[in-house]
Structure formats: C-alpha cells, structure tokens
Amino acid sequence: MSPVVTARPLTRAAFAPYGDVLDTDWTNHYPINAGRCERFHELARIETIGEDARAILSIFCGTPYDMPLTLTLVERHPLGSQAFMPMDGRPFLVVVCPDEDGRPGRPEAFVTAPGQGVNYHRNVWHGVLTPLGQPQNFIVADRGGSGNNLEEFTLDEPFTIALPKDMAHE
Ligand SMILES: NC(=O)N[C@@H](O)C(=O)O
Ligand code: NI
Asked: How would you classify residue 50: left for phi > 0, otherwise alpha for psi between -120 and 50, otherwise beta?
C-alpha cells in the first residue's frame, strides 16, 4: 500500500509556504459602493513572468475524482501563479508538495471549507484540480503568454490521499 496522506482543513498558516487562501476571513476589508458592498482587498497577487506574460481569467469545468486518490503526478507553473475559486462554494481537494532541489517532496493535502479558494504561488508543486463528489466549475486566474508554463513530475512512488474520517463518506 502506498504511503497515506490524510487531508486536513485548509488554513492560511498551513498553506502559507505554498500560496494564499481566498476567503473573507481577512482583515483588509472595507465598504464600497455606498456601503452596499464589502471589499476583501488583495487576498493574493497574480504573478506572471516571461515573454508577453499576462494575467488571464478562465473557467475550469472539473470532473470529480474518486477518493481515496492515488497521486502519481504533480505539476507546477514556472511562469506564473494559479488561483482556483469554486463557483458553487463546495469544498474541493488541494494537494501541494514542498520543493526539494527541483523535485517534489512529501505531499500535503487540504480540504477547503465551503467558499474557500486557493492561489498557488509561482513554481509551487501541486496536484491538478480535484473536485470532490460531483462536477464543479472554478474561476481560474493564472498566466497566459509565450513559453512553457507547465512542468509535470511523475512521482517515483504513488501516494494515497485520503479524506479526513468525518468526510470520508462523501
Ligand atoms: N493545466 C492546467 O491548466 N491545469 C492545472 O494547472 C491544474 O492545476 O489543474
Ligand atoms: Ni496547475
């Protein structure tokens, strides 16, 4: 059996080495539009580098994965950050790895709270978009432009990514 990594709830502190959490638990917020809207300001920055680099918005329509997940591949984007914000507010799985001399280290897994999104910093190893239980659409902010912005790495040995016990039935 491949080594098991159990996902834990996503928190800013735990995710800080990898990127930003997108939610309204954020002190930099203020009213706009005559008080009819609250702006939660600059949750993350969209980083883009390289030839004709630009920040772009896309919609990803994701197919769910069965859990526990057998993780065999991770990827990273050397030319830009990548943010995922669910359009339906349901939780999804986030898998990241520390970088160890250009190779991914042991994965860490998180389950988002309803309404949370993530922004992977540039060049951070991560699993591909992983909806849970049903198809899920996401607004994605990342980098467009020339050059190769996708580096994939097939793990020497797979990991089993499991949901926490209180979620495993979902
Ligand atoms: N390849 C692509 O656009 N998607 C991945 O980067 C991903 O993180 O899901
Ligand atoms: Ni990606």
From this structure: left
The whole model's pTM is what? Answer: 0.96
Reported ipTM = 0.93
Specify the ligand 1 atom closest to the Cα of 140.
3
Q: Which ligand lies nearest the alpha carbon of 130?
A: 1
pLDDT tens-digit profile of 74-120? 999 999 999 999 999 899 999 999 999 999 999 999 999 999 999 99
Q: How far is the CA of 13 from the centre of ligand 1 (A)?
A: 24
Q: What is the CATH number of domain 2-165?
A: 2.60.120.480
- The Å distance, Cα 84 to ligand 2 centre, comes to 9
128 CA → ligand 1 middle, Å: 5
Read off the pLDDT of residues 24-72 as tens digits, 9 standing for 90 and up.
999 999 999 999 999 999 999 999 999 999 999 999 999 999 999 999 9
Residue with CA closest to ligand 1 atom 8: 128
C-alpha separations of 65 from 35, 87, 165 in Å: 41, 18, 17
Q: How far apart are CA 163 and CA 21, in angstroms?
A: 19
